[in-house]
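In full, the data:

***
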Amino acid sequence: MPFIEKTISSKIIYEGPVFKIRRHRINSINNKISERDVLEHPGASVMLPILSDGKIIIEKQYRKAIDEVIYEFPAGKRDPGETFTEAALRELKEETGFVSENIEFLTTIYPSAGYSSERMDIFICTELHEEERNLDEDEDIELLFLDIELGDMTGIDISRKIRKEDHNDTMQIVYMTGKEGYERELFDFQPLNFLAKPLNEAKVRECIAMAYGKWTVRKHKFYYRKYYEIYAVSVGRIISFETDKRYILMTTTEGEERFRATMEQIEEQVRHHGFLKINQAVILNMEYIRQFHKDRIQMSNGKIYYTSRSYQKEAQRTYLKFMD
């Protein structure tokens, strides 16, 4: 009979947006104390989509881990609260544009059981038909280098038009000036950075890199389910989440959506993407904060949320780090 290692204690040593690494202190053979690092993964679904003519859909994708482009079956990780079957149907639609009317479980595999808990359920998908995808179109990077001293219309006037009149909260603005003292006046317009004239090439490149970093975060998708449909929206378009009885009310730049979920499920998806929890019932996208006070926050849509006393210190620390 194989020897079973008993865990004495364990702790998380790394936590990222996709997986965690837990270090186990274990009793191994001959009562020797050892350590095992285990990658904890939410699991994934793999689909074998078979068309009516018997052909199987496969994908060509670049994988950074091996630095190569490879062919593989459509697959994707399971989101919080999803079953493996639900994940399979969602990923199939997102990655291929096909919907399966007949999905059959084939088998379960553990591809890297030596160091990872990842479970993969494999499904055969037939009776396929194409359907419009729920994913948003890719967004362009909007980056504006704006001189504050322009003549009749100042950079402040242009910023006010962009933010207040055009309601464009996604454009990233870098202000250029040869004078000091504008920082407080421009804070409400959420600048990406300030550059002193004459311009320095290294500083300009740094601003472009910052803008690209924020853009990649904005492109990340938040998934939610309404009835039997899975929807996706770019996190960059989400302003806030708040509880509404047994539902979540999600406010975006396009409007509002209500769906069943828990705050824990919301946090799991947006934790590493610039969101701030200010009480048990509210999570805010820090990109859309226009006024930050110790006990309250005003968002770009004018709505004011109140920060619970127990959250105030951490909320302030997190927001200052975000703005740094």
User: Anything to note?
Assistant: The chain has a mean pLDDT of 84. The radius of gyration is 24 Å. Helices lie at 84-96, 155-165, 183-186, 201-219, 263-270, 309-323.
